[in-house]
Specification:
Blueprint: E1 3-5, H1 12-15, H2 35-50, E2 71-73, H3 76-104, E3 109-116, E4 119-125
Antiparallel strand pairs: 1-2, 3-4
């Protein structure tokens, strides 16, 4: 047994296009079906295998092109490590852009994540300069 890894990141409205996330029915519409039904079947049959959208059922990733595979592992621990690394990348990348922008404007950044309930990680970077807003009187703990 081995494992394949797949990854998709994109806009939620695209993810919500469930018709493109379902494989076509194994049997085409019977002869004499309404033309719109036949046309829709043809569209789904052509679009589903080519679409990079995650299928509604995980196993249907196997119907996607080989180019969709991001990694292959014999060892389940290696596959789990890949998942861990991707989660770290996505989480960091998504939050980092916001943090850089906010810190650049002199704002504070506070992030929190459950690592494994009940363990919670809290990260904060506080601007220690002339404060704006309602915290203007707070002094730097280093006296700077």
């Amino acid at each position: 047994m081995h494992h394949h890894g797949y990854l998709w990141i994109g806009p939620k409205d695209r993810f919500d296009q469930e018709a493109l996330r379902r494989p076509p029915h194994p049997q085409p519409p019977p002869a004499g079906s309404r033309p719109e039904l036949v046309q829709r079947y043809r569209e789904v049959a052509a679009e589903f295998p080519a679409s990079d959208l995650p299928p509604l059922e995980t196993a249907y990733w196997l119907l996607k092109p080989r180019s969709s595979v991001r990694g292959t592992w014999q060892d389940p621990e290696e596959a789990a490590a890949w998942i861990r690394e991707r989660l770290a990348e996505v989480r960091l990348t998504a939050h980092l852009a916001h943090a850089v922008e906010r810190l650049g404007r002199g704002g504070d950044v506070s992030l929190g994540f459950y690592l494994e309930r009940p363990v919670f990680l809290s990260l904060a970077v506080v601007a220690c300069s002339p404060r704006r807003e309602r915290h203007a009187g707070l002094a730097c703990p280093l006296g700077r």
